[in-house]
Design goal:
alpha+beta, Jelly Rolls, six-stranded antiparallel β-sheet, three-stranded antiparallel β-sheet, 9 helices, 11 strands, binds 2-oxoglutaric acid
């Protein structure tokens, strides 16, 4: 299924991101919204319940205060991961339909107030000191309409197209995960409920501060070429789905209650979903080990060790 138009592809090349409208139907969005509030043990109608201190500190420090929700395998999340329109959009960008979907979390970025002042951040998940620059895609599905003040996605549009030239202007000891913002212009992207925003990982991006009176709710979804020869990763992914286990690593503090594993249900998968997980193969005859080990992504400059886990 082709989803992106020629204009979309041109926009992607120029700006480093693209927005796909109506990527998921309203009932799917509502199911994730309900799951988030239940998981967080918060009442959407009672803002006083929204400001509980998170149980754990995030190893990726800039994510602290940004409202990451440590829920990864709820059936409502899987329902969106296996939508043909979302798969089609990533297939158009990657140039192959043989993809794995990330097993990623949600975001509930609540409005700033006197005793809670999240400043937002701009970062790269990839290591931009690696040559050639690592290439990957990340994505976020808006669960509600999100105004520019509401704490949604922000970025420096157009950076991927000029990143090597920009890096050449920077000191050798620059932070390869955080750009020096001098002279760079940040854009906060307004989205509608159901919009899927996909970005090139070379785009400096992040969560903006929520200066509205409405929470920002979103689900992270990305896809990347299936590593069907990587048996360790495939089994890890299957176990994660089946037993509802959160990914491990620096940016994923996990849930000390272990709520999904102990109380959740394993999501039903469609034939497409089985392939996007790795349960069924896109291609027969893949040799196990042919695509390297778990370190592959790190060698390519990604901060996250488990292929296809999170965007
Ligand atoms: O929530 C967003 O819009 C951006 C999230 C982000 O910075 C990330 O996933 O690396």
């Amino acid at each position: 299924m082709h989803v992106l138009s020629t204009d979309d592809l041109e926009f992607w090349q120029e700006h480093g991101y693209v927005v796909i409208p109506e990527a998921a139907p309203p009932e799917n969005l509502q199911a994730v919204i309900d799951a988030i509030w239940e998981f967080q043990e918060m009442n959407p109608a009672d803002p006083e319940s929204w400001y509980r201190t998170p149980d754990r500190v995030n190893g990726m420090v800039e994510l602290n205060g940004s409202g990451m929700v440590e829920m990864y395998n709820h059936p409502a999340l899987w329902a969106n991961r296996q939508l043909p329109r979302i798969h089609g959009a990533f297939a158009d960008l990657w140039g192959t339909a043989h993809l794995w979907v990330t097993i990623d979390r949600c975001n509930l970025n609540v409005p700033n107030r006197a005793e809670f002042d999240f400043g937002g951040f701009i970062h790269w998940d990839i290591d931009t000191s690696v040559v050639p620059l690592p290439f990957d895609m990340q994505g976020v599905l808006s669960l509600t309409d999100t105004t520019p003040e509401q704490g949604g996605f922000q970025c420096i549009p157009g950076m991927p197209a000029r990143l090597p030239e920009w890096i050449a202007t920077q000191p050798a000891d620059r932070n390869p995960h955080r750009p020096d913002m001098a002279g760079l212009e940040v854009k906060t992207v307004a989205t509608r409920a159901g919009d899927l925003l996909i970005w090139n990982s070379q785009l400096p991006h992040g969560v903006s501060p929520n200066r509205s009176n409405q929470p920002r709710l979103a689900q992270y979804i990305s896809m990347s070429p299936a590593q069907e020869g990587n048996e360790v990763a495939r089994q890890w992914r299957i176990d994660s789905w089946l037993h509802r286990i959160a990914p491990e690593g620096n940016p994923f503090p996990g849930d000390p209650r272990d709520w999904e594993r102990t109380h959740g249900t394993t999501a039903a998968l469609t034939p497409l979903g089985r392939k996007l997980l790795g349960l069924d193969r896109w291609q027969e005859g893949i040799v196990a080990g042919a695509e390297g080990d778990m370190a592959t992504n790190q060698q390519r400059g990604r901060t996250r060790a488990t292929p296809g886990f999170a965007s």
